[in-house]
Design brief:
The chain is mainly alpha-helical. About 70% of the residues lie in helices and about 0% in strands.
Length: about 200
């Protein structure tokens, strides 16, 4: 365990920015670390509004897998606390963050859940684009000093495992749950749908 932690810290120090790092690169890292996560709700909303029934089912499944994976993260955090780099005085921190458990990364867990779901559901271009954002966010949150590299590895594993462990449940209930979501959407937005502003 000490060897793994030493490797984790060594990789972190190789990626983590320092005061000598160009300010524009630090600003870029902060921008990605703080705001790239909003691509998730934007993508799901756009997919829901423009996709066919199959695409909507993919959006619902990605959302379910994402929330389930975040729930697993909470259980891991309650069972085992792993300090963030700044909590042990390691490296340099450019983003204010609560000193909660670092493992696994919630940001990367959610993005990985989206990426894996889209890729395995046949939406390969969207999945690949989301994976690119996922990797950028993983880099940025190490770069600005709030996560370790193995937090990102753990996040990807949690997301991947959650997707596959939920497969049997989704086969049994996924289509019905998606139809229920569509019915609620059509009832809630009946007027703009009737005006032709939204896809039914």
């Amino acid at each position: 365990m000490q060897t793994i932690e030493a490797l984790n810290q060594a990789i972190f120090l190789r990626i983590n920015a320092t005061p000598a790092t160009p300010s524009w690169l630090i600003e870029l890292g902060l921008l990605v670390a703080n705001y790239a996560i909003w691509i998730v709700p934007a993508t799901l909303a756009c997919l829901w509004l423009v996709a066919d029934d199959e695409g909507r089912e993919g959006a619902v499944r990605a959302c379910v897998v994402g929330f389930a994976a975040l729930g697993v993260n909470q259980l891991i955090g309650m069972a085992w606390y792993h300090p963030r780099p700044f909590a042990i005085g390691l490296g340099h921190t450019f983003l204010a963050h609560a000193p909660d458990s670092s493992f696994p990364s919630d940001h990367v867990t959610l993005l990985s859940a989206m990426s894996f779901t889209f890729l395995y559901c046949g939406m390969r271009r969207l999945g690949a684009a989301m994976l690119a954002v996922d990797i950028a966010v993983a880099w940025s949150r190490i770069f600005v000093g709030v996560h370790f590299p193995f937090d990102m590895v753990g996040a990807a594993i949690v997301a991947w495992a959650t997707y596959f462990l939920s497969t049997a449940i989704w086969r049994a209930w996924g289509s019905a749950f998606t139809r229920m979501c569509v019915a609620v959407y059509r009832k809630t937005f009946a007027w703009p749908i009737a005006q032709g502003w939204l896809r039914p």
